Amino acid sequence: VALEAPNKNIFFSPVSISIAFAMLALGARSVTKTQILEGLAFNLTEIQEKEIHEGFHNLMHMLSHPENGVQLNMGNAIFLTEKLKPLKKFLDEAKPLYQLDVLASDFSNPIEAEKEINDYIEKKTQGKITNLVKEMDPQTVMLLASFVFFRGNWEQPFDPENTEEREFFVDAETTVKVPMMYQLGTFDFYFDKELPCTVVRLHYNGSATAFLVLPAKGKMKQLEQTLAKERVQEWSDHLLQR
Q1: pLDDT in tens, 97-141
Q2: Among 117, 151, 185, residue at a domain's last position
Q3: pLDDT tens, position by position, 41-54
């Protein structure tokens, strides 16, 4: 992903992706439903589908609850052609569980459809995500959008005056110049020798935290391939103040 857009910021949310697929499982049947839920690593012999959806609903509610200046909004939307009518049962379950909006869109007019979708996402993310979709296929019949908006204040704010251009190494052959902010202080720090990479944890006001991970030169792809909750937990367990 980084190679495809070396000069752009990249943001992805595993939680948002998982929620979107779980929601789709509500409208799926038989083998397709099983494949979606098992693809999310659920053992359907040990947990009922109802528990899965209630769990995601509770997670969304917990994450969206404002706390001490930290704001996180999540939601889902399906844009459909007027010819495609979703089952009433799916809508009755998905709307309250997953905060789903269902909107009609004329994909045969791609320019107008793009504007409708982009305007919706821009409004829901308070202007942070613009022009999400481009060059839509007029043969499209459905588009699923899952969005996340986050806003928080650092416990130790950065000074915009302390910003300078520095090199960012995408891989062994690709280097880009990006503006980087810096500050001096004591932080939670860990050097992962296995990858290798440097990890720093920064705190927001409240209980939210962020892990900033700097892979060694040429190790971005290796980091992407091994990034999982177990890895993050390992980092958290080994952090030291430095």
Answers
A1: 999 999 999 999 999 999 999 999 999 988 988 998 999 999 999
A2: 151
A3: 999 999 999 999 99
Distance CA 90, CA 70 (A): 32
Cβ-contact 232, 238 below 8 angstroms = no
- pTM given for the model: 0.77
- Tokens, residue 14: 């595993």
Q: Is 37 within the bounds of a domain?
A: yes
Q: Which two tokens stand for residue 186?
A: 């004591």
**Residue ending a domain, choose from 104, 122, 151:** 151
| Nearest Cα residue to 25 out of 51, 1, 45, 60 | 51
- pLDDT at position 64, please? 81
Buried b (16+ CB within 10 A) or exposed e, 204-233: beeebeeeebbbbeebbebbeeeeeeebee
Q: How far apart are CA 219 and CA 12, in angstroms?
A: 19
Q: Are strands 188-192 and 163-169 parallel, antiparallel or unpaired?
A: unpaired
Q: What is the per-residue pLDDT for 220?
A: 82
* C-alpha R_g of the chain: 21
How far the first Cα of the chain sits from its last, in Å, is: 32
Q: Residue 48: helix, strand or coil by DSSP?
A: coil
pLDDT at 171 over 70: no
